[in-house]
Design brief:
4 helices
Length: 122
């Protein structure tokens, strides 16, 4: 499940991922919000928090994520990935090489710091 958190403001999207992410999560919640912000601000920033119940992506959701990320890689200024298993940190660092955005990973307790980093002036 993907939840848009109340910390979302301006061009900064703050979202929480829990359990297994589905195509429905992407198509009905996450991608419409990303599209809305990109349309409104051009380039956006995002903090994506993976809570303790996060269990990865269904194949369709993983495909949606990859496809959208490639198509919109120039539409992000900063991306913070917070929490999650070690493999997520590794994948994030690998994926960062394909995006011009600043990408950082944060440990779960550093969510407030990650949100601050995403929102601060570059």
């Amino acid at each position: 499940m993907i939840t848009i958190l109340p910390d979302t403001e301006g061009k900064a999207l703050v979202a929480e991922a829990s359990e297994k992410l589905t195509t429905k999560d992407y198509e009905e919640v996450f991608l419409p919000k990303l599209d809305e912000l990109i349309h409104q601000y051009g380039k956006i920033r995002m903090a994506f928090y993976l809570d303790d119940s996060f269990a990865g992506w269904e194949p369709g959701a993983m495909w949606d994520d990859a496809k959208y990320g490639l198509a919109h890689r120039k539409d992000f200024e900063r991306i913070a990935i917070v929490g999650g298993p070690r493999w997520v940190e590794w994948m994030t660092k690998l994926g960062a090489h394909f995006m011009p955005a600043e990408v950082r990973t944060f440990a779960k307790p550093a969510l407030p710091e990650a949100i601050k980093w995403v929102k601060e002036a570059a």
